[in-house]
Design brief:
Number of helices: 4
Radius of gyration: 19 Å
Order of helices and strands: HHEEHEEEEH
Number of strands: 6
Helix content: 40-55%
Oligomer: single chain
């Protein structure tokens, strides 16, 4: 009976922690979606609300931008998105920090983009979740290695 009681208490404690984090994960997912929509619409005010003042935005080609440069590139139309699809997204929240990973597929006036993204979000005292860092990476190597691995099996 003690063993059963211990198992039930452990299960309840674990499920309580999982449920407690669910609203935070949902809030981070909502922040990511707000960013996607602001990028699509080139909404300067919306973009300015996304990033922390100290934002570090790294592109897959090595170019780095701060928050002002990120907003200006999209709001000016220099980076213009026709569509943005986020796939295979994962969110991990630890206190007031969240790590988001996803595959980013977009159509732009310059061509199609297929990259992987790592984002770090920080929850502020009053302003909610702010993007602190974003790093893109080229998925072409990932696709090449995946094909090689599949061909071996």
């Amino acid at each position: 009976m003690k063993k059963l009681l211990s198992t039930v208490v452990f299960a309840l404690a674990f499920s309580g922690n999982a449920l407690a984090s669910s609203p935070e994960v949902a809030a981070v997912n909502q922040a990511v979606e707000q960013m996607r929509l602001a990028m699509l619409s080139a909404d300067k005010a919306g973009l300015e609300k996304i990033g922390a003042p100290s934002l570090s935005y790294g592109h897959s080609n090595g170019r780095l931008e701060n928050n002002a440069q990120f907003v200006a590139a999209i709001a000016s139309g220099k980076s213009s998105f026709r569509s943005i699809t986020l796939r295979a997204q994962t969110v991990s929240v630890e206190g007031d920090v969240a790590i988001v990973r996803h595959q980013f597929d977009a159509q732009t006036k310059q061509g199609d983009i297929h990259i992987g993204v790592l984002q770090v979000w920080k929850k502020g005292q009053t302003e909610g979740w702010k993007l602190l860092a974003r790093q893109d990476y080229d998925r072409s190597e990932e696709r090449r290695v995946g094909k090689e691995c599949r061909s071996r099996w």
